[in-house]
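Incident log, structure service

09:12 report received: a user says their structure output differs between two submissions of the same chain.
09:20 pulled the input from the user's history:
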Amino acid sequence: MSSAAEQRRPLLSDSDAILDALPNPVLMIGPDGKIVAANIATEAFFEISTQFLKRQSLKELVPFGSPLLALIDQVRSSNSPVNEYKVDLGTPRMGGDRQVDLHVAPLTERPGHIVVMLQERTIADKMDRQLTHRSAARSVIALAAMLAHEIKNPLSGIRGAAQLLEQQASSEDRMLTRLICDEADRIVTLVDRMEVFGDDRPVARGPVNIHSVLDHVKRLAQSGFARNIRFIEDYDPSLPPVLANQDQLIQVFLNLVKNAAEAVVDLGTDAEIQLTTAFRPGVRLSVPGQKSRVSLPLEFCVKDNGPGVPEDLLPNLFDPFVTTKQTGSGLGLALVAKIVGDHGGIIECESQPRKTTFRVLMPMYSTSIKHTDHSSRDDSAGKSSPAPQGAK
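09:34 re-ran on a clean worker, output below:
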């Protein structure tokens, strides 16, 4: 059976077929700045059909004063190729920031014509940042082990001494001894949370129905911290099971939903959290210890319409002790990054006012993959994952 692309373009030359097979957008610009030709990936990038693209000039599609326009002029004048990296081609119509690497070259067979190839930086940057998150998590593991040994023991002595003093202290001094005990307990609680990072035992994983996980998390949230927040579900009902530990996935998404709820708490009846699932083929990641690249086709998102994450915090958002909350410890998202990393996945945040998205990419379950989950708690997880009631 022919594909949609074949039905749309029934007569393709070999060169056209090769261009359409490329995952990167490639387009040819004429001497007048109009788009002469484009491959299928270009349609997906600009979210416009080829027929419409050919009626546009490039300057109508990219931001005003875009470096791409200057690069094209430079290539025309020098008649030699030019590369430029991390250029933002995002427009409000395309949804904000769209960073790409640009490869611009003259087409010698057709004077005045320029070939432009775009390579999105999103996935490459995610992989680079994910390695940074994992490195930061390993640093916290060592720090947690040291804190547990060097801090908890003396804190116990300090607390015990404060309790002895409290028995003979005046009412005013009792307030101080109580303060010592409370602060000691608070530090012990913080160290206990950090000790979670030191748990490097193998994760028991198996087939998990992500929609069951999200439905459970939503019910927990609506019965407590997100009681007055509207939830929107946009699920792919045909999504295959994810290769994961169910309890740890619940921990991940409960944390993300709690963060989203805290971000929209001041919006009142306008507060909104969206949960989405989708299948995104083509994302592959090199994982230490494995010869072949691991495919991460399953995408799970938690979105909110809060004020957004400050731009200066975004690159380090998953590092320990980085937080936007006045009373936060900065360990919640670091733990989420560790769990997702232990599963061989990627987590990334994209944020702008009224639209913050935490996106998790994970591997799907395959019967050919050996796993260590001996639990039969979720008997339905190995089957195709139907969306729960109410899913759109």
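09:41 both user submissions now match this output. Likely a transient worker issue. Closing.
09:42 reviewer note: The domain at 4-120 is CATH 3.30.450.20 (Beta-Lactamase). The chain has three domains: 4-120, 124-198, 206-382.
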